[in-house]
Specification:
- By secondary structure, the chain is an alpha/beta fold.
- The strands form four sheets. Strands 1, 2, 3, 4, 5, 6 and 17 form a seven-stranded mixed sheet that branches. The protein has a five-stranded parallel sheet with strand order 8-15-9-10-11. It has a three-stranded antiparallel sheet with strand order 12-13-14, with no helix packed on it.
- α1 links the parallel β1 and β2.
- α1 packs across α12.
- The longest helix has 13 residues.
Protein backbone atom coordinates (compact mmCIF):
# COMPACT_ATOMS: atom_id res chain seq x y z
CA UNK A 1 0.00 0.00 0.00
CA UNK A 2 1.66 3.22 -1.17
CA UNK A 3 1.06 6.42 0.78
CA UNK A 4 -0.61 9.19 -1.17
CA UNK A 5 1.44 12.32 -1.83
CA UNK A 6 1.13 14.59 1.18
CA UNK A 7 -0.97 17.70 1.09
CA UNK A 8 0.95 20.78 -0.07
CA UNK A 9 2.28 22.22 3.18
CA UNK A 10 1.85 25.72 1.80
CA UNK A 11 -1.89 25.08 1.64
CA UNK A 12 -2.87 23.37 4.89
CA UNK A 13 -6.49 23.07 5.90
CA UNK A 14 -7.91 25.51 8.38
CA UNK A 15 -9.98 22.71 9.90
CA UNK A 16 -10.08 18.93 9.72
CA UNK A 17 -13.14 17.28 11.21
CA UNK A 18 -12.83 13.70 12.44
CA UNK A 19 -16.13 11.84 12.39
CA UNK A 20 -19.28 12.84 10.49
CA UNK A 21 -22.17 12.38 12.84
CA UNK A 22 -24.86 15.04 13.31
CA UNK A 23 -22.54 17.34 15.27
CA UNK A 24 -19.66 17.50 12.82
CA UNK A 25 -22.18 17.50 9.98
CA UNK A 26 -23.65 20.62 11.57
CA UNK A 27 -20.16 22.11 11.76
CA UNK A 28 -19.52 21.26 8.10
CA UNK A 29 -22.84 22.76 7.01
CA UNK A 30 -22.17 26.04 8.81
CA UNK A 31 -18.54 26.08 7.67
CA UNK A 32 -19.85 25.79 4.12
CA UNK A 33 -21.56 29.14 4.66
CA UNK A 34 -18.27 30.95 5.31
CA UNK A 35 -17.54 31.32 1.62
CA UNK A 36 -13.91 31.69 0.65
CA UNK A 37 -12.74 32.19 4.23
CA UNK A 38 -12.39 28.69 5.62
CA UNK A 39 -10.71 25.63 4.11
CA UNK A 40 -12.28 22.66 5.88
CA UNK A 41 -12.47 18.92 5.27
CA UNK A 42 -14.12 16.11 7.22
CA UNK A 43 -13.32 12.38 7.40
CA UNK A 44 -15.40 9.38 8.47
CA UNK A 45 -14.58 5.68 8.09
CA UNK A 46 -18.16 4.71 7.25
CA UNK A 47 -19.16 4.53 3.56
CA UNK A 48 -22.04 6.99 4.03
CA UNK A 49 -23.98 8.89 6.67
CA UNK A 50 -26.33 6.86 8.87
CA UNK A 51 -27.78 7.94 12.20
CA UNK A 52 -28.60 5.10 14.64
CA UNK A 53 -29.99 2.86 11.87
CA UNK A 54 -30.80 0.07 14.34
CA UNK A 55 -33.24 2.33 16.19
CA UNK A 56 -35.19 3.86 13.33
CA UNK A 57 -38.30 2.03 14.49
CA UNK A 58 -41.38 2.91 12.49
CA UNK A 59 -43.17 5.86 14.07
CA UNK A 60 -40.49 6.85 16.59
CA UNK A 61 -39.77 10.56 16.74
CA UNK A 62 -36.97 12.87 17.79
CA UNK A 63 -37.17 14.22 21.31
CA UNK A 64 -36.33 17.72 20.08
CA UNK A 65 -38.36 19.91 17.67
CA UNK A 66 -37.48 20.05 13.98
CA UNK A 67 -35.95 23.51 14.56
CA UNK A 68 -33.09 21.64 16.26
CA UNK A 69 -31.75 20.66 12.86
CA UNK A 70 -28.14 21.07 11.78
CA UNK A 71 -28.16 24.84 11.30
CA UNK A 72 -31.45 26.68 11.99
CA UNK A 73 -30.76 27.87 15.56
CA UNK A 74 -27.57 29.55 14.31
CA UNK A 75 -28.52 30.43 10.74
CA UNK A 76 -32.19 30.00 9.76
CA UNK A 77 -31.36 31.37 6.28
CA UNK A 78 -28.90 28.54 5.58
CA UNK A 79 -29.57 26.32 2.55
CA UNK A 80 -29.09 23.31 4.85
CA UNK A 81 -32.17 23.76 7.06
CA UNK A 82 -34.72 20.99 7.48
CA UNK A 83 -37.36 23.23 5.89
CA UNK A 84 -35.18 23.71 2.82
CA UNK A 85 -34.78 19.93 2.66
CA UNK A 86 -38.57 19.62 2.57
CA UNK A 87 -38.74 22.29 -0.12
CA UNK A 88 -36.17 20.45 -2.23
CA UNK A 89 -38.32 17.30 -1.93
CA UNK A 90 -41.61 19.12 -2.69
CA UNK A 91 -42.88 18.23 0.76
CA UNK A 92 -43.37 21.63 2.40
CA UNK A 93 -47.16 21.64 2.08
CA UNK A 94 -47.65 18.07 3.37
CA UNK A 95 -45.40 18.93 6.33
CA UNK A 96 -47.36 22.14 6.93
CA UNK A 97 -50.67 20.30 7.08
CA UNK A 98 -49.21 17.44 9.15
CA UNK A 99 -48.51 20.00 11.92
CA UNK A 100 -45.56 18.01 13.22
CA UNK A 101 -43.22 19.72 15.66
CA UNK A 102 -41.32 16.49 16.42
CA UNK A 103 -40.37 14.67 13.24
CA UNK A 104 -39.78 10.97 12.84
CA UNK A 105 -36.25 9.70 13.38
CA UNK A 106 -36.15 8.14 9.94
CA UNK A 107 -36.94 11.53 8.44
CA UNK A 108 -34.16 13.20 10.43
CA UNK A 109 -31.76 10.52 9.20
CA UNK A 110 -32.87 11.13 5.60
CA UNK A 111 -32.47 14.89 6.03
CA UNK A 112 -28.92 14.53 7.39
CA UNK A 113 -28.03 12.17 4.57
CA UNK A 114 -29.38 14.72 2.05
CA UNK A 115 -27.03 17.33 3.50
CA UNK A 116 -24.09 14.92 3.63
CA UNK A 117 -24.48 13.97 -0.03
CA UNK A 118 -24.17 17.60 -1.16
CA UNK A 119 -21.37 19.04 0.96
CA UNK A 120 -18.11 18.68 -1.00
CA UNK A 121 -15.91 18.86 2.10
CA UNK A 122 -17.06 15.47 3.41
CA UNK A 123 -14.97 12.36 2.75
CA UNK A 124 -16.50 9.05 3.76
CA UNK A 125 -14.46 5.86 3.59
CA UNK A 126 -11.52 7.60 5.30
CA UNK A 127 -10.40 6.13 8.60
CA UNK A 128 -8.33 8.53 10.71
CA UNK A 129 -5.50 6.61 12.36
CA UNK A 130 -3.50 9.24 14.24
CA UNK A 131 -3.24 12.94 15.01
CA UNK A 132 0.05 14.62 15.89
CA UNK A 133 1.21 18.16 16.55
CA UNK A 134 4.17 19.26 14.41
CA UNK A 135 5.85 22.09 16.37
CA UNK A 136 8.22 22.90 13.53
CA UNK A 137 5.38 23.79 11.18
CA UNK A 138 2.76 24.82 13.76
CA UNK A 139 0.34 22.35 12.19
CA UNK A 140 -1.48 19.15 13.09
CA UNK A 141 -0.72 16.07 11.03
CA UNK A 142 -3.69 13.78 10.40
CA UNK A 143 -2.87 10.29 9.12
CA UNK A 144 -5.72 8.37 7.51
CA UNK A 145 -6.43 5.18 5.60
CA UNK A 146 -8.66 5.37 2.56
CA UNK A 147 -11.04 2.39 2.48
CA UNK A 148 -12.63 0.64 -0.47
CA UNK A 149 -16.40 -0.07 -0.58
CA UNK A 150 -15.84 -3.31 1.32
CA UNK A 151 -14.04 -1.48 4.12
CA UNK A 152 -10.58 -2.78 3.20
CA UNK A 153 -7.51 -0.52 3.23
CA UNK A 154 -6.90 0.98 -0.20
CA UNK A 155 -4.38 3.80 0.31
CA UNK A 156 -2.69 5.82 3.02
CA UNK A 157 -2.83 9.58 3.27
CA UNK A 158 -1.89 12.55 5.41
CA UNK A 159 -3.53 15.92 5.82
CA UNK A 160 -2.19 19.01 7.50
CA UNK A 161 -4.38 21.43 9.37
CA UNK A 162 -4.32 24.35 11.74
CA UNK A 163 -7.25 23.06 13.77
CA UNK A 164 -9.09 19.81 14.55
CA UNK A 165 -12.76 19.13 15.34
CA UNK A 166 -13.40 15.78 17.01
CA UNK A 167 -16.88 14.41 16.51
CA UNK A 168 -16.29 10.70 16.93
CA UNK A 169 -19.52 10.19 18.87
CA UNK A 170 -20.43 7.57 21.41
CA UNK A 171 -20.38 3.78 21.48
CA UNK A 172 -22.92 1.27 22.85
CA UNK A 173 -22.44 0.39 26.51
CA UNK A 174 -22.73 -3.27 27.52
CA UNK A 175 -22.69 -4.05 31.27
CA UNK A 176 -19.82 -6.27 32.40
CA UNK A 177 -22.19 -9.04 33.53
CA UNK A 178 -23.50 -9.45 29.99
CA UNK A 179 -20.37 -8.82 27.91
CA UNK A 180 -19.40 -12.50 27.50
CA UNK A 181 -22.85 -13.36 26.17
CA UNK A 182 -23.05 -10.28 23.94
CA UNK A 183 -19.68 -11.11 22.39
CA UNK A 184 -20.48 -14.80 21.85
CA UNK A 185 -22.36 -16.26 18.91
CA UNK A 186 -25.49 -18.31 19.30
CA UNK A 187 -28.06 -16.96 21.71
CA UNK A 188 -29.19 -13.42 20.87
CA UNK A 189 -27.90 -10.90 23.41
CA UNK A 190 -27.78 -7.66 21.46
CA UNK A 191 -27.50 -3.96 22.18
CA UNK A 192 -30.45 -1.79 21.25
CA UNK A 193 -28.25 -0.04 18.68
CA UNK A 194 -28.60 -3.20 16.54
CA UNK A 195 -32.27 -3.86 17.26
CA UNK A 196 -33.72 -3.58 13.75
CA UNK A 197 -30.98 -5.79 12.32
CA UNK A 198 -32.16 -8.61 14.60
CA UNK A 199 -35.86 -7.80 14.96
CA UNK A 200 -37.24 -10.78 13.04
CA UNK A 201 -35.01 -13.19 14.94
CA UNK A 202 -36.05 -11.62 18.23
CA UNK A 203 -39.75 -11.84 17.42
CA UNK A 204 -39.30 -15.56 16.73
CA UNK A 205 -37.99 -16.11 20.29
CA UNK A 206 -40.44 -17.63 22.74
CA UNK A 207 -39.52 -15.24 25.56
CA UNK A 208 -37.79 -11.85 25.28
CA UNK A 209 -36.19 -9.67 27.96
CA UNK A 210 -35.55 -5.95 27.53
CA UNK A 211 -33.09 -4.35 29.98
CA UNK A 212 -33.04 -0.58 30.38
CA UNK A 213 -35.56 2.09 31.40
CA UNK A 214 -34.72 4.88 28.96
CA UNK A 215 -36.37 5.92 25.73
CA UNK A 216 -34.79 3.18 23.63
CA UNK A 217 -35.89 0.46 26.03
CA UNK A 218 -39.43 1.84 26.08
CA UNK A 219 -39.65 2.06 22.29
CA UNK A 220 -38.35 -1.47 21.81
CA UNK A 221 -40.67 -2.88 24.48
CA UNK A 222 -43.62 -1.16 22.78
CA UNK A 223 -42.62 -2.40 19.33
CA UNK A 224 -42.26 -5.99 20.58
CA UNK A 225 -45.51 -5.79 22.52
CA UNK A 226 -47.45 -4.63 19.48
CA UNK A 227 -46.01 -7.49 17.42
CA UNK A 228 -46.83 -10.29 19.91
CA UNK A 229 -50.21 -12.02 20.19
CA UNK A 230 -52.55 -11.04 23.02
CA UNK A 231 -52.20 -13.36 25.98
CA UNK A 232 -48.89 -14.78 24.76
CA UNK A 233 -46.64 -11.74 24.84
CA UNK A 234 -43.94 -13.33 27.01
CA UNK A 235 -41.87 -10.19 27.50
CA UNK A 236 -39.99 -9.03 30.58
CA UNK A 237 -38.93 -5.39 30.86
CA UNK A 238 -36.32 -4.87 33.57
CA UNK A 239 -34.76 -1.63 34.77
CA UNK A 240 -32.17 -0.66 37.34
CA UNK A 241 -33.91 2.68 37.99
CA UNK A 242 -36.58 3.00 40.68
CA UNK A 243 -39.38 3.46 38.16
CA UNK A 244 -40.25 3.74 34.50
CA UNK A 245 -40.02 7.48 34.81
CA UNK A 246 -41.09 10.22 32.39
CA UNK A 247 -38.45 12.53 31.04
CA UNK A 248 -38.46 16.09 32.37
CA UNK A 249 -40.06 18.05 29.55
CA UNK A 250 -41.46 21.15 31.21
CA UNK A 251 -40.69 24.47 29.56
CA UNK A 252 -38.42 25.71 32.33
CA UNK A 253 -36.86 22.28 32.70
CA UNK A 254 -35.88 22.39 29.03
CA UNK A 255 -33.88 25.54 29.73
CA UNK A 256 -31.12 23.24 30.98
CA UNK A 257 -30.45 22.69 27.27
CA UNK A 258 -29.72 26.34 26.53
CA UNK A 259 -26.41 28.12 26.03
CA UNK A 260 -27.16 30.06 29.23
CA UNK A 261 -27.14 26.89 31.31
CA UNK A 262 -24.10 25.54 29.49
CA UNK A 263 -22.12 28.68 30.38
CA UNK A 264 -23.32 28.51 34.01
CA UNK A 265 -22.39 24.83 34.31
CA UNK A 266 -18.94 25.32 32.77
CA UNK A 267 -18.12 28.02 35.32
CA UNK A 268 -18.88 25.74 38.30
CA UNK A 269 -16.03 24.06 40.20
CA UNK A 270 -15.15 20.60 38.93
CA UNK A 271 -16.36 18.75 42.03
CA UNK A 272 -19.70 20.56 41.87
CA UNK A 273 -20.17 19.61 38.20
CA UNK A 274 -19.34 15.98 38.95
CA UNK A 275 -21.92 15.90 41.73
CA UNK A 276 -24.55 17.59 39.59
CA UNK A 277 -24.48 15.50 36.39
CA UNK A 278 -25.78 12.20 37.84
CA UNK A 279 -28.53 14.07 39.69
CA UNK A 280 -29.89 15.38 36.40
CA UNK A 281 -30.58 11.97 34.85
CA UNK A 282 -34.28 12.68 34.36
CA UNK A 283 -33.45 15.52 31.98
CA UNK A 284 -32.17 13.04 29.41
CA UNK A 285 -32.63 9.44 30.57
CA UNK A 286 -36.38 9.22 31.14
CA UNK A 287 -39.14 8.23 28.72
CA UNK A 288 -41.23 10.75 26.84
CA UNK A 289 -44.85 11.08 27.89
CA UNK A 290 -46.31 9.90 24.57
CA UNK A 291 -44.35 6.63 24.67
CA UNK A 292 -45.36 5.90 28.27
CA UNK A 293 -48.98 6.60 27.34
CA UNK A 294 -48.78 4.35 24.28
CA UNK A 295 -47.34 1.49 26.37
CA UNK A 296 -50.07 1.76 28.97
CA UNK A 297 -52.76 2.01 26.27
CA UNK A 298 -51.45 -1.13 24.57
CA UNK A 299 -51.30 -3.05 27.85
CA UNK A 300 -54.80 -1.89 28.78
CA UNK A 301 -56.20 -2.87 25.39
CA UNK A 302 -55.02 -6.41 26.03
CA UNK A 303 -57.17 -6.65 29.18
CA UNK A 304 -60.45 -5.99 27.37
CA UNK A 305 -61.16 -9.69 26.90
CA UNK A 306 -60.40 -10.46 30.54
CA UNK A 307 -57.11 -11.42 32.09
CA UNK A 308 -53.79 -9.65 31.99
CA UNK A 309 -51.11 -9.54 29.27
CA UNK A 310 -48.18 -11.87 29.77
CA UNK A 311 -45.78 -8.95 30.11
CA UNK A 312 -43.78 -8.21 33.26
CA UNK A 313 -42.44 -4.70 33.95
CA UNK A 314 -40.07 -4.59 36.92
CA UNK A 315 -37.96 -1.58 37.92
CA UNK A 316 -35.38 -1.51 40.71
CA UNK A 317 -33.61 -4.65 39.42
CA UNK A 318 -29.96 -5.26 38.59
CA UNK A 319 -28.46 -8.16 36.64
CA UNK A 320 -25.76 -9.65 38.87
CA UNK A 321 -24.55 -12.37 36.50
CA UNK A 322 -25.74 -14.13 33.36
CA UNK A 323 -25.02 -17.38 31.57
CA UNK A 324 -26.32 -19.92 29.13
CA UNK A 325 -28.71 -22.71 29.93
CA UNK A 326 -28.11 -25.62 27.55
CA UNK A 327 -27.43 -24.03 24.16
CA UNK A 328 -30.50 -21.96 23.38
CA UNK A 329 -31.51 -20.13 26.55
CA UNK A 330 -30.10 -17.43 28.83
CA UNK A 331 -30.30 -17.33 32.59
CA UNK A 332 -30.22 -13.93 34.27
CA UNK A 333 -29.44 -13.71 37.98
CA UNK A 334 -31.42 -10.74 39.28
CA UNK A 335 -31.37 -8.72 42.48
CA UNK A 336 -34.00 -6.26 43.64
CA UNK A 337 -32.02 -3.56 45.40
CA UNK A 338 -34.79 -2.29 47.70
CA UNK A 339 -36.13 -5.68 48.70
CA UNK A 340 -32.67 -7.25 48.92
CA UNK A 341 -34.15 -10.28 47.17
CA UNK A 342 -32.69 -12.42 44.40
CA UNK A 343 -34.15 -14.62 41.71
CA UNK A 344 -33.39 -16.15 38.31
CA UNK A 345 -35.03 -15.48 34.99
CA UNK A 346 -34.74 -17.81 32.01
CA UNK A 347 -35.24 -16.15 28.63
CA UNK A 348 -34.57 -16.79 24.95
CA UNK A 349 -33.31 -13.35 23.92
CA UNK A 350 -32.00 -10.22 25.64
CA UNK A 351 -32.01 -6.66 24.31
CA UNK A 352 -29.67 -4.29 26.13
CA UNK A 353 -31.11 -0.79 26.09
CA UNK A 354 -28.25 0.24 28.35
CA UNK A 355 -27.23 3.45 26.63
CA UNK A 356 -23.99 4.79 25.24
CA UNK A 357 -20.66 6.08 26.51
CA UNK A 358 -18.38 8.72 25.08
CA UNK A 359 -15.66 7.16 22.95
CA UNK A 360 -12.28 7.67 24.64
CA UNK A 361 -10.07 10.21 22.90
CA UNK A 362 -6.81 8.56 23.97
CA UNK A 363 -6.29 6.35 20.92
CA UNK A 364 -6.84 8.91 18.24
CA UNK A 365 -5.10 11.71 20.18
CA UNK A 366 -2.15 9.70 21.46
CA UNK A 367 0.20 11.99 19.55
CA UNK A 368 -1.30 15.05 21.23
CA UNK A 369 -1.41 13.59 24.74
CA UNK A 370 1.88 15.17 25.93
CA UNK A 371 0.36 18.60 25.31
CA UNK A 372 -3.03 17.88 26.88
CA UNK A 373 -4.10 19.34 30.22
CA UNK A 374 -6.32 17.17 32.42
CA UNK A 375 -8.63 17.74 35.36
CA UNK A 376 -8.39 16.14 38.81
CA UNK A 377 -10.13 13.02 37.51
CA UNK A 378 -7.76 12.62 34.56
CA UNK A 379 -10.27 13.79 31.95
CA UNK A 380 -9.33 16.30 29.25
CA UNK A 381 -9.97 19.87 30.28
CA UNK A 382 -12.29 21.69 27.85
CA UNK A 383 -12.59 25.48 27.76
CA UNK A 384 -15.68 27.61 27.11
CA UNK A 385 -15.05 27.47 23.34
CA UNK A 386 -15.26 23.65 23.38
CA UNK A 387 -11.49 23.37 22.92
CA UNK A 388 -9.20 20.94 24.65
CA UNK A 389 -6.87 22.86 26.93
CA UNK A 390 -3.40 22.26 25.47
CA UNK A 391 0.11 23.41 26.22
CA UNK A 392 0.51 27.12 25.30
CA UNK A 393 3.12 26.13 22.73
CA UNK A 394 0.40 24.47 20.63
CA UNK A 395 -0.97 27.26 18.48
CA UNK A 396 -3.70 25.12 16.92
CA UNK A 397 -6.98 24.14 18.56
CA UNK A 398 -8.67 20.77 19.07
CA UNK A 399 -12.42 21.28 19.40
CA UNK A 400 -14.60 18.49 20.75
CA UNK A 401 -18.26 17.71 20.15
CA UNK A 402 -20.20 15.42 22.50
CA UNK A 403 -17.10 14.61 24.54
CA UNK A 404 -17.52 17.32 27.15
CA UNK A 405 -20.47 16.42 29.38
CA UNK A 406 -18.12 16.58 32.37
CA UNK A 407 -17.29 20.20 31.55
CA UNK A 408 -20.39 21.51 29.74
CA UNK A 409 -23.26 19.52 31.26
CA UNK A 410 -26.26 17.53 30.08
CA UNK A 411 -26.62 19.55 26.88
CA UNK A 412 -23.39 18.18 25.37
CA UNK A 413 -25.10 15.26 23.54
CA UNK A 414 -28.34 17.16 22.84
CA UNK A 415 -29.19 17.84 19.19
CA UNK A 416 -30.79 21.12 20.19
CA UNK A 417 -27.39 22.65 20.96
CA UNK A 418 -25.65 21.36 17.81
CA UNK A 419 -25.99 24.51 15.71
CA UNK A 420 -25.11 26.83 18.60
CA UNK A 421 -21.98 24.84 19.48
CA UNK A 422 -20.91 24.67 15.83
CA UNK A 423 -21.36 28.43 15.50
CA UNK A 424 -19.42 28.99 18.73
CA UNK A 425 -16.54 26.91 17.36
CA UNK A 426 -16.53 28.69 14.00
CA UNK A 427 -16.71 32.14 15.57
CA UNK A 428 -13.72 31.33 17.75
CA UNK A 429 -11.77 29.56 15.00
CA UNK A 430 -12.16 32.43 12.53
CA UNK A 431 -11.54 35.13 15.12
CA UNK A 432 -14.62 36.88 13.79
CA UNK A 433 -18.34 36.65 14.15
CA UNK A 434 -19.73 34.92 11.05
CA UNK A 435 -22.64 33.62 13.12
CA UNK A 436 -23.84 36.22 15.67
CA UNK A 437 -25.30 34.40 18.65
CA UNK A 438 -27.89 35.60 21.18
CA UNK A 439 -26.62 36.95 24.47
CA UNK A 440 -29.51 35.46 26.41
CA UNK A 441 -31.41 32.23 25.74
CA UNK A 442 -33.29 31.36 28.96
CA UNK A 443 -35.74 33.02 31.31
CA UNK A 444 -34.02 31.23 34.19
CA UNK A 445 -31.01 32.90 35.82
CA UNK A 446 -29.08 29.84 36.92
CA UNK A 447 -26.71 31.58 39.31
CA UNK A 448 -26.24 34.75 41.28
CA UNK A 449 -24.24 37.61 39.86
CA UNK A 450 -21.45 38.13 42.44
CA UNK A 451 -21.68 41.88 41.89
CA UNK A 452 -25.37 41.86 42.73
CA UNK A 453 -24.66 40.17 46.08
CA UNK A 454 -22.83 43.27 47.36
CA UNK A 455 -25.63 45.70 46.55
CA UNK A 456 -28.17 46.50 49.32
CA UNK A 457 -31.70 45.49 48.50
CA UNK A 458 -34.00 48.49 48.12
CA UNK A 459 -36.66 48.94 50.78
CA UNK A 460 -40.19 48.18 49.58
CA UNK A 461 -42.10 51.30 48.53
CA UNK A 462 -43.88 52.93 51.45
CA UNK A 463 -41.73 51.30 54.15
CA UNK A 464 -39.05 52.96 56.25
CA UNK A 465 -35.63 51.22 56.22
CA UNK A 466 -35.05 49.30 59.47
CA UNK A 467 -31.89 51.29 60.27
CA UNK A 468 -33.92 54.50 60.45
CA UNK A 469 -36.41 52.89 62.86
CA UNK A 470 -33.62 51.81 65.15
Amino acid sequence: MTPQPPTDLDQPHDLVGIGIGPFNLSLAALADGIHGRLAATFYDQRPAFHWHPGLLIDGTTLQVPFLADLVTLADPASPWTFLNYLKARDRLFPFYFAERFHIQRAEYDAYCRWVSEQLPALHFGHQVDAVRWNPERDLFEVDFTQLDPAGEAEALGRAYTRHIALGIGTEPYVPDALKPLAEASGVPVIHSADYLDHRERLLAAEHITVIGSGQSGAEIFLDLLRARPTGAEKIHWLARSEAFTPMEYSKLGLEHFTPDYTRYFHALPEHVRDDLVPRQWQLHKGIDHDTITAIHDELYRRTLGGGWPEAVLTPGVTVRTAGRVATTKIELHLEHTRQATRTRLTTDAVILATGYRERPLDRILAGVDPYMRRDASGRPRVDEHHRLVLDPGVTGSVYVQNAERHSHGVGAPDLGLAAWRSATILNHLTGGNPYPLPRRTAFTSFGLDPQDQTRPMPAPRGLVPLTEVL
